[in-house]
Specification:
This protein is mostly helical. The protein is built from twelve helices and two strands. Its main location: membrane.
């Protein structure tokens, strides 16, 4: 018995250095970025660090470009994630009921998720090219004019949403299908014996039982969606103008094109606040829905 405290001390002696290293690697950049956000620092041309307080935050909050990027990001994320969930859930239900060719579909549906977003954006840029793209060539076969998929603000946002749906719906399919396969079969067999319709089985059994999983899936996709940059950077570059510029692309332009490090750090923390607000509101609404179905 007297050896147990000694063994615990040895165990913690081995764990503590690794824990301290991970903590330092995680916290130091965050604290350093927070300090830099209260300064004016430029790399090109070199400008010495100068403490300016909340001036960077005030300038960003007073910028129409910042609020425009929030609107664009929210529009892309909310619309694409909503469609991803509905479409992914529907496909998962179809695969769960063993439609003809289900094995082939399970493999093919997952392929887009394994592609790099940059490669997906490059393929989409070729497909939706205003003049040479096969999508516009298809429309011209029916006597329609070429559509400005990448040169019109509304069409460009719709194109980005389409690409996000195509690439990340398989993620929803994968998780929802796993959830469906984990549901107890006895409940559904009893419902069939009672001649309950398929719609009522979905509304009263399947959806409520998968609601916690649905909340988690949508939350993951919302957080990941807010970080979108590579697809926008390659496909539209934030254009035309700044009509498709997201928050992350805005921060990239400030940091790696204007080399305004202080402004970029402040923008990053404002981005963090925006994500936390969206996440908090979503989880509050989701908790009310879960309690309602319990």
């Amino acid at each position: 018995m007297s050896q147990i405290p000694q063994l615990d001390r040895v165990k913690y002696a081995f764990i503590f250095p690794a824990f301290l290293l991970v903590l330092t690697i995680t916290l130091f950049p965050l604290i350093y970025a927070l300090v830099v956000s209260f300064q004016t620092i430029r790399i090109v041309p070199p400008v010495p660090a100068k403490f300016v307080g909340f001036d960077n935050y005030v300038e960003i909050l007073g910028s129409a470009r910042f609020w425009g990027s929030i609107q664009v990001t929210a529009m892309i994320v909310l619309i694409s994630v909503a469609i991803q969930y509905v479409l992914g859930f529907a496909l998962a239900l179809a695969l769960h009921h063993n439609v003809p060719g289900a094995s082939l579909y399970r493999v093919s549906f997952l392929l887009p998720m394994f592609l790099a977003p940059v490669s997906v954006a490059l393929i989409a840029r070729m497909l939706f090219h205003p003049v040479l793209g096969p999508v516009n060539e298809f429309f011209t076969m029916f006597g329609l004019e070429n559509l400005p998929f990448l040169t019109s603000p509304n069409f460009a946002i719709a194109t980005l949403i389409t690409v996000e749906i195509w690439q990340w719906t398989p993620f929803v399919v994968l998780l929802m299908l796993a959830g469906l396969q984990g549901l107890p079969t006895e409940v559904f067999e009893a419902a069939r014996v009672d001649s309950i319709s398929a719609w009522r089985r979905f509304r009263d059994l399947t959806f409520p039982m998968l609601l916690p999983l649905s909340v988690a899936v949508v939350f993951i996709r919302l957080i990941e969606g807010f970080k979108i940059i590579d697809t926008v950077f390659v496909l539209t570059g934030g254009g035309p103008g700044t009509s498709t510029e997201t928050l992350t692309l805005f921060a990239y332009n400030e940091g790696f094109k204007k080399f305004n490090i202080g402004m970029t750090s402040a923008l990053s923390f404002l981005f963090l606040i925006v994500v936390i607000l969206f996440g908090t509101i979503y989880l509050a609404v989701a908790q009310r829905m879960i309690r309602r179905y319990q």
